[in-house]
Write a structure and sequence with these properties.
One of its GO terms (molecular function) is nucleic acid binding. Keywords: Hydrolase. By secondary structure, this protein is α/β, with parallel strands linked by helices. The protein has 18 helices and six strands. Helix 1 runs parallel beside helix 2 and helix 17 crosses helix 18. It is globular.
Length: about 475
């Protein structure tokens, strides 16, 4: 097909070759050099080598003497056997202190660690993600008088990722291997590579703490962090109400009797798991419970239960008679004694139901959420660290009756404090809640009525 005149390109006269000049590269042939990949950060290594695990009274006495002779805060970490054991106890405790070095302690070998508590005294503890370790350390008789949580501090500072390895690489420039993070720490003896991994978790906690503490001061958040750390000292793991409702796949279960079947089997499995000190999923998985509960006919004998496709696991055959027995009990229960889909709670309904249940409360929530998002962005931290979302919902769903601004502010502050909010949170979020309550009471402006369409339904216009 011939080109149109406007698309023709006139011939260019040939240019004489220039001796010694390279031929120019066209955009298609020019090569753009690739930027070299950044060098990975050097691996974090143990400065003092790896000592023996302390599991004798003599060893504990020497460890306590070393810790007491050290100076400054004490870096502490604990390893549990999550995913393997029912209990949440510590199977290894790591400690490091300036002038003392790193120590690995086997708490299983002792009835309690009161001598270590005395050796630490009132020194500050440094932990990463303290809520994970405080309960199991408390079970061994260890309680901090003062602590610093590097993970929580990282959240207050707005770091997008606050895992220990990420913070160490970001702030200290060392890379941590995490290949042993999910091993069974109840194993005895513990392999040396696992012990090295565990020791590295406290290797630079003191240095990390100092860098983060300086940043907290520079950003004016050091007092916020101090209040958060003080509240952590009395942290208790929350008691899980109706924990069976967290069964994976429960949303597929229909009907109160099927829910009752899941509940009964979950409770039996939990009892067996506690007796054997193994994680419940190793008896039978969640999928086995929901498969039995949703069978066409509730399997109330061992043969029928074992015939259910999906009822499997290490304990399926061994405990099938006991599971069938609790299913027989569920089959005979009156409807009124079976669980409902939605549990009764003392808290507000889910936010999605607010508009129907209480439109005014729904307006409060919309106003508060928008302001909270701006506040979180202004202070560079996650929204949930400004205030626990449940606390915000509780106060907005049932706010104080007064609408006199000063009295309302005082009562909102009192309500937040009673829920466990820290003073810095009350100071920041209290005014947001007061504003949301006052503005939420106002009637929203009426939407303008649509102008009538004069041509609607009209026939053809005369010419």
């Amino acid at each position: 097909m011939a080109a149109s005149p406007s698309s023709e390109v006139p011939e260019q006269p040939e240019q004489p070759e220039q001796p010694g000049q390279p031929e120019p590269e066209t955009p298609e042939t020019a090569e753009t050099p690739e930027a070299p990949a950044p060098e990975p950060a050097p691996l974090l290594t143990l400065r003092d080598g790896l000592g023996e695990v302390v599991d004798t009274k003599t060893g504990l006495d020497e460890l306590c003497e070393a810790i007491a002779a050290g100076s400054g805060p004490v870096a502490i970490d604990a390893e549990r056997a999550s995913g393997y054991r029912y209990s949440n106890r510590a199977y290894l405790i790591q400690l490091r202190r300036e002038g003392s070095g790193t120590h690995l302690l086997d708490p299983i070998a002792f009835d309690g660690l009161a001598p270590l508590q005395e050796a630490i005294g009132d020194a500050e503890w440094i932990l990463h993600a303290a809520t994970q370790d405080l309960p199991c350390l408390r079970a061994e008789g260890l309680r901090p008088t003062e602590l610093f949580d590097t993970e929580l501090a990282g959240r207050l500072l707005g770091y997008p990722r606050v895992g220990l390895a990420t913070l160490v690489e970001t702030l200290i420039g060392r890379r941590m291997k995490k290949e042993h993070s999910a091993v069974d720490w109840s194993t005895r003896p513990l392999p040396r590579p696992w012990l090295e991994y565990a020791a590295l978790d406290v290797e630079v906690l003191v240095e990390l703490r100092d860098l983060i503490a300086d940043e907290l001061v520079a950003t004016g958040k050091d007092e916020w962090a101090r209040q958060e750390f003080e509240a952590l000292r009395s942290f208790e793991a929350p008691v899980r109400v109706d924990a069976w409702r967290r069964t994976s796949g429960l949303h597929k279960v229909r009907g109160r009797r099927a829910l009752g079947a899941v509940k009964a089997m979950w409770e039996l499995r939990d009892e067996i798991a506690e007796q054997r000190d193994v994680t419940p999923g190793r008896i039978v998985p969640d999928s086995a419970l929901t498969a039995a509960a949703t069978a066409a006919v509730l399997p109330t004998d061992r043969t029928a239960l074992m015939a259910v496709k999906g009822f499997h696991g290490r304990g399926a055959d061994r405990y099938s008679s006991r599971f069938a027995a609790v299913l027989r009990e569920v089959a005979e229960l009156p409807e009124s004694e079976l669980p409902t889909r939605t549990p009764r709670t003392d808290g507000p309904p889910p936010p999605r139901a607010w508009a129907d249940r209480d439109p005014v409360a729904a307006r409060r929530l919309v106003i508060a959420r928008e302001a909270m998002s701006g506040l979180a962005e202004e202070h560079g931290m996650p929204l949930e660290n400004l205030l626990t979302p449940d606390h915000l919902r509780r106060v907005l769903w049932a706010p104080p009756a007064t609408r006199e601004p000063e009295a309302l502010a005082a009562e909102v502050a009192e309500a937040l404090e009673s829920l466990g909010a820290r003073p810095w949170q009350v100071g920041l979020v209290g005014p947001v809640i007061v504003d949301a309550v006052l503005r939420g009471d106002e009637e929203p402006p009426a939407e303008p009525e649509a102008e009538p369409d004069d041509t609607a339904g009209a026939g053809p216009q005369d010419g």
